[in-house]
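Narrative summary of target 7.
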Amino acid sequence: MMGAGKSTVARLAAGRLGWTWLDTDTEVARAAAASVPEIFARHGEPSFRRQETRALVEILRRDEPLVVSVGGGAVLDEANRAALRAAGTVVWLRARPETLIERVGDGTDRPLLAGDRPEDRAETLRAIDARRRPVYAAVADEVVDVDGLDAPTVTERLLDAAGLGAPGRGVHP
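Modeled conformation, tokenized:
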């Protein structure tokens, strides 16, 4: 979910492992030469989701160790879920809606919250979370709860959950 810390934690994990970090939103924006909010505004969510799927497929084709932060809506597509499951370990950074609400702030860079009045933003975020939570649970191999934790601590827990935390454990390049 937006605000869970996917990009920050994935970047930190990749740095710890010496692996490449890629972010689906960044790859979509690069390919489109436009920001994610601009893509949503100009072409709508369905167009963004198609571009997101293309970016995810291209990322997962790479033949190198990767840590990938995947946009929160990408797993709504069954083909994307299947591709993620086949590619490696999927870790859900799970946060309570209250944590997500606090972290997304005014939501100006979050297209699904754009246009919401401040008093409606929390309700919208709770509704998105409620719809996605069962999908995240179904696709995740591991879950790391992030509430009240800083990014380095979440990174350690993610690496441990994926079996990559302690030397001599897990798969290393």
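The chain has one domain: 6-161.
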